[in-house]
Every structure is written in C-alpha cells, then in structure tokens.
Predict the 3D structure of the following.
Amino acid sequence: MKRSHPICDHPILLLLEAKTQTPATFKQIHAQFITGGLALHTYPLSRLLLAASLPPLSFALGLSHAVSILRRALRPSAFLANTLLSSLAAHGYTHLALSLYSELLLCRFDSPKPNNHTYPSLLKACSHPPWLPHGLALHAHLIKCIDGDALDPFIRAALLSFYAKCGKLAICRHLFDQISQPDLPAWNCILAAYARCSNDAESNGSGMETLFLFQRLQLSSTRPNEITLVALISACGDLGALSQGMWAHAYVERNDLIVNCFVGTALIDMYSKCGRLDLAEQVFAGLPEKDTHCYNVMIHGLAIHGHGRRVFGLFDSMRSDGVAVDDVTLVAVMSACAHAGLVDEGRRYFGRMQVDFGIVPKIEHYGCFLDLLGRAGRFEEAEQVMRQMPVKPNAVMYRTLLGACRIHNKSEVGERMIENLIRLEPEHGGNYVLLSNMYADTNRWDDVRRVRKVMKDKGIDKTPGSSLVEIDGSDA
C-alpha cells in the first residue's frame, strides 16, 4: 500500500529496522518519538509497537514494555491493538495476545469492538493445545461482534484452518459450504483438511472427498496453486490412487506450477506409497533444492521397499549436502535397517544418535530398534532394551515383538508380550484374540478355551476384522 503521508518516511522509522537494536537504542528512539511528535500518529506508533514485540528485543525489554506503549498512547485505537496482538500471537505469546484481546473486547480503546483484523492471528495461535478452548470462545465472540455478511476472506480462512487443525472436519466442511464463492485460501484450507485426515481410520472417505472437491474447484473460476496440488497429491498417495496422482503431476507441469520442496515431497511420497519407486526417485533427482522433508520421504520410500543399502547411500549424501538430519530421518533409517535385516547397522545408528546428531532417542526410535531386534530373533536383547528404556513401552512395541515371536515360534516371549498388552489395554478384545491365536499356534486348546471364557466373563467382544480361532474342529 502506497504511503501518502510524509511522516511515513520519517528518518527515525528507519532506525527501528536496524538489526543491531538494543534496549538502550530503542528507548532513545522512543524518546525521539515523544519529543518529535511521532507518537501522536498511528502509523509510526504501530512500527514502534511492532519493533518492541519482536525477539530478541522483546526478550531484553520484556513484553510489558510494548503493552505499556499501547496503553499510554494518546489515541490507542483498535488498529494499534491489532498490530501488537498479531505480533504477539505470531511469536508464541498467546497468553498475552488473549489478554490484550480481552481489553479490546471490553472497549478500552477508541474502537467500539474488535474488527475483522482482530481474529485471524488469534485463531491461528489457538489452533494448538492447550489453547483450543479459547479458539472456540473466539468463534463465539466473532459471531457476536461481527455480522456474518461482513466477514472477510481472511477470517473465513482462519476459521476453516482452526477447525481443520482441531480435527473437527464436519464443522470445517459446514463453514466452507456456507461460503457462496470460496476464494483460493478457503479451497486450500478445506482440501488440506480432508487430505490430512485421508489416512485416518475415523475419517472414512476423506481422501475421496479431496478428489471430489478438487473437481468442484476446477469448475469454479478459482485457479489452483501449489498448495492446492500438495493436498490433492497427498490424498492420492494415501488412497493409492496412482493414475490420479500422475494426472496431478501432469497438471503441475502443464500449468507451469513450481515443483518446489513441498510439491516435490508430496510427489515423492505419493509415488512411493503407490509402488512406483522409480518415479519417486526421478522426482527427487529433478528437484533443484532438497530440504530435510524431501530426503526424509525418499529415505522412507526406499526403506518400505526394502532397499536398506541404498538408504545408507542417500543418508550419506544428505549429510554431505549439509541438509539437517532430524528425528524423522533417523526413524526412516532405523526402519530401513529393520526391513532389510541390517542389525549391526541399525544398532550403530541407534547407539550414536545423540553423539552424532544431538537427537535424544524418542519412543518412535525405540520402536524401530525393537522391530529390528525382533525381526532378527534377538528377543533377549529386545526385552533388555525395553527394561532399560527411559520411556514406558506402549502397545505398539508389544505388538511389534509379538508379531516377531509368531514368526520365530517364541511362544514364551509372546505370552509375556500379550500379558503386558492386556495390562495396558484390559478392554481391548484384539489382545485376547492375539493370545488365543498364540496358543492355537502351539496346539494349546485348553488355553484357547480359557481365553475365550475370560472374554465372555468380562463381556469383551473381539475386534472387528480379527479372527478368533475356532476349536470345535480339527482345523483351528
């Protein structure tokens, strides 16, 4: 926006943009604002507030300094409050942003109530725990303070994004359907929401809905961009819809969209999930710039297809290119070792995670390591790792080792795993089914009957889709 007033180009404002700003110099500039009359004008004062709320200056001064500037302004308008509020919310000071919003709501400023510029940044900040309840309250305030017809596209997109991140897909879709002519941000929000839930068992059909929505988008006057295609390609990967994914790839090429790291990552992931590792590698090789996410999905693709040795070569290239290694990278590398049976290599990577990469092993890394040991039949070592873990083993770990026990006919170890599973999830019918099947594998029919009786006495149904062994005939 073109600045029409000469005061917007005042030399003092340039000093605020200096990267070497210190508390002392900032206070000197603030004094110049007061003595020179800049503090009487809204735009210069908004720049001062913005500078005071940005780290590292905000750490040195304290955020209360920025709030005090606003409160002592001659005309502390909603515009100034929104400027500070947005900055606080964007930099993680959600509690202070909400406190400032409360003052705005109580009409302590010239503006009679919050406006369209008040809510987008707050809703974004409240889309993560523990602030979700505050986001719901903000939506209620928004309905009271702003007429529905006056909602601008930024608020609509912020609401869609908020409910999508909360996992409330039905509400997100309801809000989207109320928009008569959705703009591109609204389309991208709803498509990303469905794509994010497409591999969630509780959101059946969301992947297909992503494809249907994209067809609707094509019939509108809105032109998709790279963000739109990332959602579409991700949904194709989760559905295993190779032909639709290839069409989306061709759409990117035909319409001169940029195959950036986000689009490239989605394509690599999609082709890997659809079994076309050759096309995934082709996309990866063609990317001009590769970030950590690109390498992670390519390493994961190689891992799930059993190319453990090739994973090591790609991992070495990642490090030599100076790309940062994160915890997801090491989960993928450990998974590759497990799928390829590379026990020594997996043990070495796990043992040197913290030394070489500064990453403390998380439960996902322990899970991959246990999977590696279980597949190799190293059950004694696996149980020792479980006992020495700094985190409590979860059900996935026990099931992982249980699967390996059935492969290696280690019924005694398997029984211990199932006993731990039942302690963790006493009402989960699938655990009893696993125990019954374990006994059936070794022809222990009396124990199979005992498990079924326990399930009946506790009123536990078997998990849908599981098969509880029948013991009435010779074929069990």
